[in-house]
Amino acid sequence: MSSQASKDHPEGQKPPLLVDDHTVATVRDSRILVLMRGLPGSGKTTLAKDIEKKYKDSCRLISADVHDIKPVARGASGGEYAKLDDELSTCFEKREANLVILDDTHHDRERLDKLFDMANAYHFSVVILEPKTPWRLDCAQLKDRNHWKLSLEELKNLRPTLEKDFLPLYFGWFLAKRDEDCLRKTSHEFLEQLGNLKAFKKRLQAYGCEDKQKLDLLKYFGKSPNILHCTAKFCDYGKVLGSEEYAQQEAVKKAYSRGYTLHISALFATPRTVGAQVELTADQLLIWPPDAEKEVMPKDILPRGSRAHITLGTATDVQDVQTGIDLLEFVKLQQSGREGESLGELTGTVAGKVSYYDNGMWLLNLSRKIEVRSIFSGYYGKPGVQVPLRGKKGLLNQCQIM
Ligand code: 2AM
Question: Are residue 152 and residue 21 in the same domain, yes or no?
Fold first, then answer.
């Protein structure tokens, strides 16, 4: 980092994707769109260039300044973004970089929505970064620092659109692309082996089939989240009570854009969902909301973190949120002393014992935990963006096994 930038962004305030080795390695295997956000002159460009320098060839920096787009308070008509958007979609389409940084004020909600849609379409997760410079909201100082020569009044008009944190639909750990591909493959393997298990074929009624019929579980769980993730806090863009307080927590702020390894101990399928059980580490529990289990099971006392999961697929008309509820049903049964009926073993990447818990609830206790790398961030786009569960053939199958 240049000495000026170092002064502007003291060590403790640099984002993890600049200073944390594990995060840097994870980012390199992810697809991420970084949106720089802040008033003109607040230090976005310095930070963006530092990130570009760190990631070199795997990174692409696209700047609104280069396209001569002046930041104005009212929603831009959009026309001035045509060239920049062309550059951005070409970059996504041609896979020119797996880390794309967009340097703009990003104060306009409509503009952001368009970018979230584009990121979704190309399976990029989004990280919003704001410079932490002491003058970032000080219009008097920004007046002399911004190269657009915006007046004090113009800056004051822009400020309200940028001083509040931008809350996502949910915060969570988003899997690195490479690890996501592996886990999708593992999930297919699980469903294929489970579907072929004699004991499963004998217990198909809960899945709306006659026993001994052939059920294609990959078809049954038709949809999967666009980017596999483990939700930490559902915020509904700030409408959920407590979401603002969650986002303000020091631990959450520190975690944002940081790389984490998630440990998967079991896979499960029910007539509604297929998912992976995640065992959170002490570090990860620091950003796990204390009421996460109570939110969906208010009457029960369940271990903290026991809802942590990755939705792998859902049956027709079932919402993703059901996966965590299904997982907690297993946890509740186990808490009451039910171990499940041991009905077989799976092999290969999904080696482990299969237990049956009635009502079509199957749990695979993995012999060896699966590790997947992820970045803690937010999902800011529209709800319900999904992809078909049956993915491309020939995905990598090299998940790291503990
Ligand atoms: P999931 O984490 O169980 O897969 C958008 O709906 C995302 O937020 C989904 O990933 C969903 O499920 C998660 N989510 C968590 N809590 C939710 C809630 N109370 N309502 C809706 N979705 C929720």
Answer: yes
